[in-house]
Design goal:
Helix content is 35%, strand content 18%. It has eleven helices and 14 strands. It is elongated and about 70 Å long. The protein starts with a helix and ends in an 18-residue tail after the last strand. The structure holds S-adenosyl-L-homocysteine. S-adenosyl-L-homocysteine (SAH) binds next to strand 10 and strand 12.
Length: 347
């Protein structure tokens, strides 16, 4: 009960922490020490802050709590992929994934509990959105995976993709704050070039990102470059139309000169015709683009089926003929439901 009234100390900026101490008649510097314990050393209790006096720790304890995530369950796939079920301070659970390759370790993190959008092929969409994650809840997922990467693969985390549960641009401010922390020297000091934010396409927010000259990369889950087809599989496209998305992406490229990656799944009877391929090629023309053809991970009743390899090959051929970079991405961690679109808290 008491905890509910106390403020989460990690919601405070360094300046606010310094101000707290000066208001208590202590030195502002104490704020720096506490901040370092919270963000660099990952302290989960005030008692762990050993260079801070007992009285001060008590003072902190009567005013604040430290909310932090807890990795409830860790599953390992045959291919090395690790999935964490992450419990939040209020009991809700999100999932994050560690994807190891020969050279890299990538963290796939969640930005919301559930999702605000309604993509018909995605398991997370069926959960509906329950709440946004706070910046520290996003940051903590990254730290947990960085630790696992060091422990199991003897190397630090190298890349981060916001491709877990949720739509990052519907929780933009918190995602941005988390990225600031991840990239700052007081946090993990990672380069923003190693971070990719993946969106279903929220035009207004893409323009905002362009205006803010963000340094991380943008990926868009396109799946179709034909208005009606896209609406049939991603119903929110009726509101955030392909035309608006295209206009926002043109703006993004004009302002940032940063290449756009499109994620694209090819389904039987949905987007497997030459007309679909031509529309995608045309959509990719206005800015340097890369297309990631993702393998479909079946989520249930078989409403959606991956198109045969011959169709994927045709996509690759047509894109390459038009000078568009294309990769065919095999899914990882399928056996533990850790692949794209499968995150849905089955546990
Ligand atoms: N909301 C964001 C990020 C989460 S989804 C976005 O839409 O980009 C991460 C990627 O997985 C997206 O490209 C999404 O379209 C894709 N995806 C969702 N369900 C999938 C499934 N069942 N199989 C393969 N990819 C899927």
């Amino acid at each position: 009960m008491e905890n509910k009234k106390k403020k989460d100390v990690r919601a405070l900026t360094k300046e606010q922490l310094r101000a707290f101490f000066t208001a208590q008649g202590d030195q502002a510097f104490r704020g720096n020490q506490v901040y370092e314990w919270l963000w660099q050393k990952g302290a989960h209790s005030f008692d762990a802050m050993t260079n801070i006096s007992k009285e001060t720790r008590l003072l902190l304890d009567t005013n604040f709590v430290i909310n932090h995530i807890k990795v409830d369950q860790m599953q390992r796939s045959k291919d090395g992929t690790i999935k964490n079920a992450v419990r939040l301070h209020d009991g809700l659970v999100v999932e994050s994934v560690l994807i190891p390759t020969a050279k890299r370790t990538t963290a796939c993190v969640s930005s919301q509990v559930g999702c605000s959008l309604d993509c018909r092929f995605c398991a997370t969409a069926r959960l509906k959105r329950m709440r946004n994650l706070n910046p520290d809840e996003i940051y903590d997922q990254v730290v947990a995976i960085d630790n696992e990467s060091r422990l199991y693969f003897n190397r630090p985390l190298s890349n981060i993709v916001f491709m877990g549960m949720g739509e990052p641009l519907m929780n933009y401010n918190n995602v941005l704050k988390a990225i600031e922390k991840i990239t700052s020297v007081e946090g993990l000091g990672m380069s923003p070039k190693r971070i990719t934010v993946s969106t279903s396409g929220v035009p207004k927010m893409i323009k905002k990102m362009a205006d803010q000259r963000v340094k991380f990369k943008l990926a868009v889950s396109l799946h179709s470059a034909i208005e009606e087809t896209r609406t049939s599989i991603m119903p929110f496209n009726a509101t955030f139309t392909l035309q608006d998305l295209r206009e926002a992406l043109e703006y993004w490229y004009r302002e940032t000169k940063s290449r756009i990656t499109y994620e694209y799944v090819v389904w039987k009877d949905v987007n497997d015709s030459q007309k679909d391929i031509d529309a995608l090629v045309d959509f990719c023309r206005f800015a340097p683009s890369k297309v990631n053809l993702i393998e479909y991970n079946p989520i249930d009743d078989g409403e959606f089926q991956q198109a045969p390899t011959s169709v994927i090959d045709r996509y690759v051929e047509c894109l390459e003929q038009n000078g568009i970079t294309v990769t065919v991405r095999r899914s990882r961690g399928k056996d533990i439901d850790a692949a794209c679109g499968q995150l849905a808290n089955k546990s």
